[in-house]
Amino acid sequence: MSKTLQAIRGMNDILPEQTPAWRYLERTLADLLDSYGYREIRLPILEFTELFARGIGEGTDVVDKEMYTFLDRNEESLTLRPEGTAGCVRAVLEHGMTGGGQVQKLWYAGPMFRYEKPQKGRYRQFHQIGVEVFNLPGPDIDAELIVLTWRLWKKLGLGDAVTLQLNSLGSSEARVAYRDALVAYLQERFDRLDEDSQRRMTTNPLRILDSKVPETQALLVDAPRLHDYLDAESVAHFEGLKARLDAVGIRYEINQKLVRGLDYYSRTAFEWVTDKLGSQGTVCGGGRYDGLITQFGGKPTPGVGFAMGVERLVLLLETLDLVPAELSAPAHAYICAFGEPAELAALALAEQLRDAVPGLRMLVNSGAGSFKSQFKKADKSGARFALILGEDELANRVVGFKPLRDDSEQQNIAWDALAERLAACIDQA
Ligand code: ATP
Ligand code: MG
């Protein structure tokens, strides 16, 4: 017997029970982004491998270990996007959207792919909603992005469940100086570093700062501190950002070890973190990447953005029971019809009612069936009313209007009075 086919490990089906929470999150965020004047951009899932190698950088976990890369039939190396920023930058350059200092405020949503060890909150296909802003160099826009996410948490009821971690990575020169100091310090303690961190000494030493290994963290207690190396302009930028967050009343914790996984950040870096999801606690991360666009051959163009993990946010909403119940609300009405003439009339009637009653959720029985079986299906659907249409009802142009959720009596209602009756029921709900 052939083996039952299964989904690829770490790539999940999102089942009908879960999609209301997804749509709730997606819709809330899309509306919010609209209201702040951000425009949606839709990008391909596949890009040339080189885009990510150049844009994210060799020496990062994402590029070195996590990409799904393959040769297509034309022997070109393609990669399933592991994140959205690189593709977005490619698109704005390709379409000349940032030329002449044009400001762009963009957002995107969709699946990302990383070959990671699947666990709760960490998958191989996962979804992000991301925002990228181009040609705004100041701390005001960094603040706007954080304010916007903060408003999202409040809207979703997550305000108390997440905290903001904030850092400045300085200019790239400042970071080079800091990196040298950090490497010199760690070189003397090389033997005591964990294996991953030893490897990172040559590939991406700043990443050692967020090592999860306790012994490595202990070694870092007396390490040089990033903020002692910041250039004056970055310090001023950071002060400007903090002043704006203070003005709105957003609390933050400064975390000098927050360097983020991707290499192209400069100055502002931030993460929204929750302690409710175990070790996969970062639900949103972002920062400034003023150097990235030149890496793609574009003119120097300031960029700043963030991405949030949809699975983790959905998990958080579910964990805290914050998904509004009405999102998976059952139908208002279920039409049962007996015999072909009644079925035809029911279908036409249903369409008239859909025209006449905005927001009406109505099921029309399919598959015919006895009175008993149709009634059972109506009941099981969770609908509030069954509309019954048999030979007699058809002849009299009425339906039997039967409440399914309380004991009130069934009544006959004329077809042309039905819309009004149903509309009244919806208003009450
Ligand atoms: P982490 O430290 O958790 O691996 P990261 O720094 O690799 O995160 P980013 O590249 O900044 O993550 O992606 C932004 C957000 O996307 C993360 O904060 C997280 O919410 C989500 N995310 C990243 N990788 C995964 C994954 N494999 N599965 C589910 N969500 C993810
Ligand atoms: Mg990661």
UniProtKB/TrEMBL annotation:
Biological processes, Gene Ontology terms: histidyl-tRNA aminoacylation
EC number annotated for this UniProt entry: 6.1.1.21
Record domain Aminoacyl-transfer RNA synthetases class-II family profile: where: 1-330
UniProt: L-histidine binding residues: E83, G84, T85, R114, Q128, E132, R260, Y264, Y265
Catalytic activity: tRNA(His) + L-histidine + ATP = L-histidyl-tRNA(His) + AMP + diphosphate + H(+)
Keywords assigned: Aminoacyl-tRNA synthetase, ATP-binding, Cytoplasm, Ligase, Nucleotide-binding, Protein biosynthesis
Compartment(s) of residence: Cytoplasm
Top EC category: ligase
Molecular function via GO: ATP binding; histidine-tRNA ligase activity
PANTHER family the UniProt entry points to: HISTIDINE--TRNA LIGASE, MITOCHONDRIAL-RELATED, HISTIDYL-TRNA SYNTHETASE
Family that this chain belongs to: Belongs to the class-II aminoacyl-tRNA synthetase family.
NCBIfam families: hisS (TIGR00442)
UniProt subunit comment: Homodimer.
Protein name: Histidine--tRNA ligase
Organism annotation: Pseudomonas tohonis
